[in-house]
Amino acid sequence: MIKKLIPLFAVALLLAACQSKEAKTTESVTADTTKYPYTPKKVHNWEMNPEPQNMVAAMSALKGFASLDTAAVKPFLGDSIWLMVDNYSFKGTRSQFLGEAQHEIERFKQIQIDMEDMESVISKDKSEEWVSLWYKQISILKDGKTDTVNCFNDFKMKNGKVVGWSEYIQHPMKGKP
Fold first, then answer.
1. Angle, CA 122 vertex, CA 55 and CA 127 arms, to 5°
2. Measured between alpha carbons, how far is 48 from 135 in angstroms, rounded to an integer?
3. What is the C-alpha to C-alpha distance for residues 156 and 81, in angstroms, rounded to an integer?
4. Of 54, 139, 166, 170, which one has the greatest count of Cβ atoms within 10 A?
5. Which positions make up the signal peptide (predicted)?
């Protein structure tokens, strides 16, 4: 009798093992106990922004400048804007900003942008949105001088418009690979 029950028991175990069981998942939130050298004032817990509107607006504003056309930049700017570039900063209305930009653009004959990378992020509490662009800019001034710089731009976005623009420039080293 036991010999007859062993195969039956084995089949029952095999069937039980093959049954799909719902995986139990528990998300355990572990506090970050890492000792960082600096503590930020506020932790935003950034995540990738799946919506493309901010990326399109930031890139379109940059393209307007590269096209030397402030009118093409205007639709992508908020009512007020701040700018920080090399030893210059600006804070004011869109119209004031475009006036300043037009003065700067008049120095150029041509600007070429070679985009390297891009990223759009949003804080988990949805209070801040930023777009970051990494690119090489080749500029030809009206006097014929050419300049090549590596740029990193951070665009602060609000309601799909650029309201802040930080530009960081790196001049390639001469004679170094």
1. 120
2. 20
3. 9
4. 54
5. 1-23
Q: Identify the CATH assignment for 46-170 out of 3.10.450.50, 3.40.50.360, 3.40.50.800, 1.25.40.390.
A: 3.10.450.50
Q: Which residues contact 155 (CB under 8 A, 6 or more apart)?
A: 54, 57, 58, 61, 130, 131, 132, 133, 162, 164, 165
How far apart (Å, rounded) are the C-alpha atoms in residues 74 and 128?
22
Give the bridge partners for 141, in sequence order. 108
* Bridge partner residues of 132 (DSSP): 119, 154
Judge contact between 90 and 82, C-beta under 8 A.
Answer: yes
Give pLDDT tens digits along the chain (177 positions): 444 444 444 444 444 445 544 444 445 556 778 888 998 888 778 999 999 999 999 999 999 999 999 999 999 999 999 999 988 999 999 999 999 999 999 999 999 999 999 999 999 999 999 999 999 999 999 999 999 999 999 999 999 999 999 999 998 877 655
